[in-house]
Design goal:
Radius of gyration: 21 Å
CATH architecture of the largest domain: 3-Layer(aba) Sandwich
CATH superfamily of the largest domain: Type I PLP-dependent aspartate aminotransferase-like (Major domain)
Largest sheet: 7 strands, mixed
Shape: globular
Order of helices and strands: HHEHEHEHEHEEEEEHHHEEHHHEH
Strand content: 5-15%
Number of domains: 2
Helix content: 25-40%
């Protein structure tokens, strides 16, 4: 086994970054913000325009979080009392947005090859009471079935919302994440591909959805009226100028961020592809993922907790995304009587997965170190070291 020098610091899962040049730009623009609108001004408008242009969507509406964009989309579809299919490998907000909009989340299996919704399982769960599907691009990967999901939804009168929190810039067959379904929902939280500190973006090509979202963003106000009239139940989920400025600066670097993430992912793939007891969860085409994280599926014989602790002791942070699974979160157990064993396949995959750090601040040396350390950990905690 190749010897790699131990690092004297931690390799973390995320490391949001603003260069000296970026900071200079931000400091200059802050003065302009302080002299003008502090919220929903020039930077918000430009962020929306630049983001919609970047992914090829006709409309983009900036909000204070990805959660708010999900809530706006679900309110538009009036899902009260109806079912919405969601994956179990996702953040609590995906399912909670359905619940808070009056809908019923239907928890569905994920594929072990993508950690995204399994199309065949979803099709089995559709009933006469199904309103739509939320397709989560887990870890930035667009499932190769994404266009089939859209066709299925169109054919059956269902909506398709993309929870694209992890995937700005990922592209499948010429379509960017957020521009495949009827609505796209993005996150700009500090751990994401690009950050505005806090913030989200709703994207769509449907003018009715866009108009509803714009009104919802402003407490339900009639945006066409000169008077202060409110026409739908809305919220104050506006984005501030400061957040939009940060988002614009980060968006200007999206291509270079994605290039570096994909470089790191390719290095991991090359170094780990033949590692016994490990399945790489990667797309056929690297451009179809933004590689928010790099997912591995371990054999059941490997002690995942042991691997995790060993990696940490050697200066590498790894994690298990969204544990427990969505349907096993205490709130959903209580609300919907969900239980362990309800989705045995997904529960098995999620009990064995592990995520490696994959972000632009990781150097080639660090990438090599992470992969080498993982190999040692697998060797130790698969029992091979005792043979």
């Amino acid at each position: 086994m190749q010897k790699v020098k131990r690092l004297e610091y931690m390799v973390n899962m995320a490391d949001p970054y603003f260069s000296v040049k970026d900071r200079k730009t931000i400091h200059q623009e802050i003065d302009l913000i302080l002299d003008n609108a502090l919220s929903m001004g020039h930077n918000v408008k430009m962020f929306e325009k630049e983001f919609s242009n970047r992914i090829g969507a006709q409309y983009a509406i900036a909000m204070n979080s990805c959660t708010s964009t999900l809530e706006a989309a679900l309110q538009y579809y009036n899902i009260k009392g109806r079912e919405v299919i969601v994956p179990v490998e996702t953040f609590i907000a995906t399912g909670m947005a359905v619940h808070l909009a009056g809908g019923i989340p239907i928890f569905s299996d994920i594929s072990k090859d993508t950690f995204c919704l399994d199309l065949k399982d979803v099709q089995k769960r559709v009933t006469s009471n199904t309103a739509g599907i939320i397709l989560v691009h887990m870890a930035g990967m667009i499932t190769p079935d994404a266009h089939k999901f859209r066709s299925f939804c169109d054919k059956n009168g269902l909506f398709l919302i993309e929870d694209a929190a992890h995937s700005p810039g990922a592209i499948l067959d010429g379509k960017y994440a957020g521009n495949i379904g009827h609505v796209g929902c993005f996150s700009f939280y500090p751990t994401k591909i690009i950050t505005s500190g806090e913030g989200g973006m709703l994207t769509t090509n449907d003018s009715d959805i866009a108009n509803y979202a714009r009104s919802y963003q402003n407490r339900g106000r009639d945006m066409q009226s000169a008077e202060e009239c409110y026409i739908i139940p809305g919220r104050n989920v506006r984005m501030s100028e400061m957040n939009a400025l940060l988002g614009r600066v980060q968006l200007s670097h999206l291509d270079e961020y994605l290039y570096r993430r994909r470089q790191i992912a390719k290095m991991y793939s090359e170094m780990l592809y033949d590692l016994q007891g490990v399945q790489l969860v990667i797309p056929n085409k690297f451009e179809s993922s933004s590689f928010w994280k790099f997912i591995l599926l371990l054999d059941a014989t490997i002690d995942r907790a042991g691997v995790t602790e060993y990696m940490k002791s050697e200066g590498v942070t790894v994690d298990w995304s969204y544990t427990p699974a969505l349907h096993l979160q205490p709130i959903f157990r209580r609300l919907y009587n969900t239980y362990e064993g309800q989705l045995p396949c997904s529960e098995d995959y999620l009990s064995r997965h592990i995520c490696l750090p994959c972000h632009p601040r990781i150097t080639d040396e660090e990438t090599l170190y992470v992969a080498s350390t993982l190999k040692k950990a697998i060797y130790i905690f698969s029992g091979m070291s005792k043979k």
